Recover the amino acids of this structure.
Protein backbone atom coordinates (compact mmCIF):
# COMPACT_ATOMS: atom_id res chain seq x y z
CA UNK A 1 0.00 0.00 0.00
CA UNK A 2 2.61 2.54 1.10
CA UNK A 3 6.10 2.33 -0.27
CA UNK A 4 8.03 2.49 3.02
CA UNK A 5 11.39 0.79 3.21
CA UNK A 6 13.39 -0.44 6.20
CA UNK A 7 15.44 2.74 6.44
CA UNK A 8 12.31 4.90 6.63
CA UNK A 9 10.91 2.69 9.42
CA UNK A 10 14.20 2.91 11.30
CA UNK A 11 14.18 6.70 10.97
CA UNK A 12 10.55 6.89 12.23
CA UNK A 13 11.51 4.67 15.20
CA UNK A 14 14.47 6.88 16.16
CA UNK A 15 12.35 10.05 15.92
CA UNK A 16 9.58 8.44 18.00
CA UNK A 17 12.15 7.39 20.62
CA UNK A 18 13.49 10.90 20.85
CA UNK A 19 10.07 12.64 20.83
CA UNK A 20 8.05 10.22 23.00
CA UNK A 21 10.81 8.94 25.18
CA UNK A 22 11.92 5.46 26.14
CA UNK A 23 9.37 5.09 28.97
CA UNK A 24 6.21 5.73 26.95
CA UNK A 25 7.40 4.25 23.60
CA UNK A 26 6.27 0.63 24.33
CA UNK A 27 2.76 1.82 25.33
CA UNK A 28 2.46 4.01 22.19
CA UNK A 29 3.74 1.15 20.00
CA UNK A 30 1.16 -1.22 21.54
CA UNK A 31 -1.64 1.33 20.95
CA UNK A 32 -0.46 1.90 17.38
CA UNK A 33 -0.45 -1.89 16.81
CA UNK A 34 -4.03 -2.19 18.12
CA UNK A 35 -5.18 0.69 15.90
CA UNK A 36 -3.43 -0.87 12.91
CA UNK A 37 -5.17 -4.22 13.65
CA UNK A 38 -8.56 -2.49 13.88
CA UNK A 39 -7.89 -0.74 10.59
CA UNK A 40 -7.02 -4.07 8.94
CA UNK A 41 -10.18 -5.73 10.32
CA UNK A 42 -12.31 -2.80 9.14
CA UNK A 43 -10.78 -2.95 5.63
CA UNK A 44 -11.31 -6.73 5.44
CA UNK A 45 -14.93 -6.32 6.62
CA UNK A 46 -15.58 -3.71 3.94
CA UNK A 47 -13.99 -5.96 1.30
CA UNK A 48 -16.10 -8.94 2.34
CA UNK A 49 -19.28 -6.80 2.35
CA UNK A 50 -18.53 -5.57 -1.13
CA UNK A 51 -17.82 -9.13 -2.27
CA UNK A 52 -21.14 -10.34 -0.80
CA UNK A 53 -23.02 -7.52 -2.51
CA UNK A 54 -21.44 -8.42 -5.84
CA UNK A 55 -22.35 -12.09 -5.38
CA UNK A 56 -25.90 -11.16 -4.39
CA UNK A 57 -26.23 -9.02 -7.49
CA UNK A 58 -24.96 -11.89 -9.65
CA UNK A 59 -27.46 -14.27 -8.04
CA UNK A 60 -30.28 -11.79 -8.67
CA UNK A 61 -29.28 -11.51 -12.33
CA UNK A 62 -29.13 -15.30 -12.65
CA UNK A 63 -32.58 -15.55 -11.05
CA UNK A 64 -33.98 -12.99 -13.48
CA UNK A 65 -32.46 -14.84 -16.43
CA UNK A 66 -33.95 -18.11 -15.16
CA UNK A 67 -37.34 -16.46 -14.71
CA UNK A 68 -37.23 -15.09 -18.26
CA UNK A 69 -36.31 -18.48 -19.69
CA UNK A 70 -39.14 -20.17 -17.77
CA UNK A 71 -41.60 -17.53 -18.96
CA UNK A 72 -40.49 -17.93 -22.59
CA UNK A 73 -40.80 -21.72 -22.32
CA UNK A 74 -44.28 -21.36 -20.82
CA UNK A 75 -45.37 -19.01 -23.60
CA UNK A 76 -44.09 -21.41 -26.27
CA UNK A 77 -46.00 -24.26 -24.60
CA UNK A 78 -49.13 -22.09 -24.55
CA UNK A 79 -48.68 -21.32 -28.25
CA UNK A 80 -48.31 -25.01 -29.08
CA UNK A 81 -51.39 -25.81 -26.98
CA UNK A 82 -53.35 -23.15 -28.86
CA UNK A 83 -52.26 -24.61 -32.20
CA UNK A 84 -53.30 -28.10 -31.11
CA UNK A 85 -56.61 -26.79 -29.74
CA UNK A 86 -57.37 -24.95 -33.00
CA UNK A 87 -56.46 -28.03 -35.01
CA UNK A 88 -58.71 -30.27 -32.93
CA UNK A 89 -61.60 -27.79 -33.11
CA UNK A 90 -61.33 -27.57 -36.91
CA UNK A 91 -61.20 -31.36 -37.17
CA UNK A 92 -64.26 -31.67 -34.93
CA UNK A 93 -66.08 -29.11 -37.10
CA UNK A 94 -65.13 -31.03 -40.24
CA UNK A 95 -66.41 -34.28 -38.74
CA UNK A 96 -69.65 -32.59 -37.70
CA UNK A 97 -70.13 -31.20 -41.20
CA UNK A 98 -69.48 -34.62 -42.78
CA UNK A 99 -71.88 -36.34 -40.40
CA UNK A 100 -74.55 -33.71 -41.06
CA UNK A 101 -74.03 -34.03 -44.81
CA UNK A 102 -74.20 -37.81 -44.62
CA UNK A 103 -77.44 -37.55 -42.66
CA UNK A 104 -78.94 -35.38 -45.39
CA UNK A 105 -77.72 -37.60 -48.23
CA UNK A 106 -78.61 -40.89 -46.58
CA UNK A 107 -82.10 -39.77 -45.76
CA UNK A 108 -83.84 -41.16 -42.74
CA UNK A 109 -82.54 -44.68 -42.86
CA UNK A 110 -82.96 -46.47 -39.50
CA UNK A 111 -79.82 -46.84 -37.44
CA UNK A 112 -78.79 -50.44 -36.92
CA UNK A 113 -77.97 -51.85 -33.50
CA UNK A 114 -74.24 -52.48 -34.23
CA UNK A 115 -73.91 -48.86 -35.31
CA UNK A 116 -75.48 -47.71 -32.02
CA UNK A 117 -73.08 -49.89 -29.99
CA UNK A 118 -70.15 -48.51 -31.94
CA UNK A 119 -71.29 -44.93 -31.34
CA UNK A 120 -71.74 -45.57 -27.61
CA UNK A 121 -68.38 -47.35 -27.16
CA UNK A 122 -65.83 -45.08 -25.46
CA UNK A 123 -63.02 -43.96 -27.70
CA UNK A 124 -59.45 -44.80 -26.65
CA UNK A 125 -57.43 -41.78 -25.55
CA UNK A 126 -54.92 -40.56 -28.08
CA UNK A 127 -51.38 -41.11 -26.84
CA UNK A 128 -49.74 -38.12 -28.51
CA UNK A 129 -50.89 -35.12 -30.47
CA UNK A 130 -49.16 -33.70 -33.54
CA UNK A 131 -47.52 -30.41 -32.63
CA UNK A 132 -46.77 -29.34 -36.17
CA UNK A 133 -49.16 -27.51 -38.43
CA UNK A 134 -51.74 -29.91 -39.87
CA UNK A 135 -51.57 -30.78 -43.56
CA UNK A 136 -54.26 -29.20 -45.76
CA UNK A 137 -57.32 -31.40 -45.96
CA UNK A 138 -59.90 -31.91 -48.66
CA UNK A 139 -62.94 -29.71 -48.56
CA UNK A 140 -65.97 -31.28 -46.84
CA UNK A 141 -67.91 -31.06 -50.09
CA UNK A 142 -65.56 -33.56 -51.76
CA UNK A 143 -66.15 -36.05 -48.98
CA UNK A 144 -69.92 -35.57 -49.29
CA UNK A 145 -69.82 -36.25 -53.01
CA UNK A 146 -67.98 -39.52 -52.53
CA UNK A 147 -70.31 -40.48 -49.71
CA UNK A 148 -73.39 -39.92 -51.84
CA UNK A 149 -72.17 -42.19 -54.59
CA UNK A 150 -75.06 -41.27 -56.91
CA UNK A 151 -72.69 -39.77 -59.49
CA UNK A 152 -74.72 -36.61 -60.00
CA UNK A 153 -71.92 -34.43 -58.65
CA UNK A 154 -74.29 -32.28 -56.62
CA UNK A 155 -73.26 -31.17 -53.18
CA UNK A 156 -75.55 -30.88 -50.24
Amino acid sequence: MFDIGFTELLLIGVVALVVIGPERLPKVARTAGHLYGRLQRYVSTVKSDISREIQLDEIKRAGQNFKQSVESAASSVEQQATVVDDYLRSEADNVSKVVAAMGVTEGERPVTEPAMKQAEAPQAAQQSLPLEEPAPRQAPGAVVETARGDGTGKTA
